[in-house]
Amino acid sequence: MSVDGRTVRADAQRNRQRLVEVGRRAFAAEGGKVALETIAREAGVGIGTLYRHFPTREALVEAVYRAERSHLCESAAELLAEHPPDRALRIWMDRFADYIAVKREMADALRAAISSGAITSSQAREELSAAVQTLLDAGGAAGTLRDDVRAEDVVAGLVGIFLACNQPDQRVQAGRLLDLLMDSLIRRHRLRGAKGPV
After folding, report:
1. pLDDT beyond 80 at 33
2. Please, which residues bridge with residue 3 across strands?
C-alpha cells in the first residue's frame, strides 16, 4: 500500500485500517465528539501511532469518510453477484442510507475537510453515480430496470430523500420514499398491441 507516495509496512497498514474501522464505529456512535485517545485505545495502538497516520482529527474523519464511500461504491458489484439487479439496487439504497447516517454524525469534522478542498461534493457524486450506473446497466440488460434513467439523477433523488428525512427517527419514512424512487426505476413492459406508454 502507498500513502502520500510512501510505501507502508504491513503492520502499519493494519494499524491504519484498524484506526479507520474503530473511527467509523466511534463517529457513528458519538459523532465528532469522541476523543482520539479513545479511538487509539480501542484500536489497540498508542496515541502516537494514531497521530503518525492522522496528524489531525480532520485527517482521520476524511479517511473514515473516504473508506465509507469506497465501500459503498464497491458494494454495487458485490450485490449484483448475489441478487437480481433491481433487488441489488434497492439493497444498495439502504446501504446509502447507512452511509448518510455515518456522514451526518461526522458533519462538523467533515466541514473542515470540505472547506480545505480535501473532499469535494462533485468527486463524491461522480463516484456514487458510477456505482449506480453499474446497477442500472445490469438492470437494463436484464430488462428489469429502465434504460433511460441517468445515474446522477438517481443519486440526486437519494440525496433529496435524506435531506428531507434528516433525523434518525425518520428512517422509516426514508425507506418508504426509497421504495417510491425504486418503483419509478422499474421497467414497465408494454402490453402487446397497446399504443403509447403503459
Report:
1. no
2. 6
CATH architecture of the domain 6-55 equals Orthogonal Bundle (1.10)
Residue 193 confidence (pLDDT) above 50: no
pLDDT band at 31 (very low <50, low <70, confident <90, very high): low
Q: Can you name the residues that pair with 7 across neighbouring β-strands?
A: 2
Q: Which of 196, 14, 33 is nearest to 109 (CA)?
A: 33
Output the nine-digit C-alpha cell for 54: 492522522
Name residues whose C-beta falls within 8 Å of residue 35's C-beta, 6 or more positions apart in sequence.
none
Question: Could you tell me the residue ranges of all domains in the chain?
Answer: 6-55, 64-187
Q: In terms of CATH architecture, what is 64-187? A: Orthogonal Bundle (1.10)
Supply φ then ψ for residue 194, to 5 degrees.
Answer: -75, 150
> 140: closest CA among 75, 197, 187?
187
**52, 6 Cβ separation under 8 angstroms:** no
How far, in Å, CA of 25 to CA of 6, rounded? 27
Q: Whose grid coordinates read 445490469?
A: 138
CB 12 within 8 A of CB 18: no
* Structure confidence at residue 46 as a pLDDT band (50, 70, 90): very high
Dmax (CA) for the chain in angstroms is 72
Evaluate the CA torsion angle 134, 140, 146, 148 in order and state its sign. positive
For cell 421504495, name the residue: 179
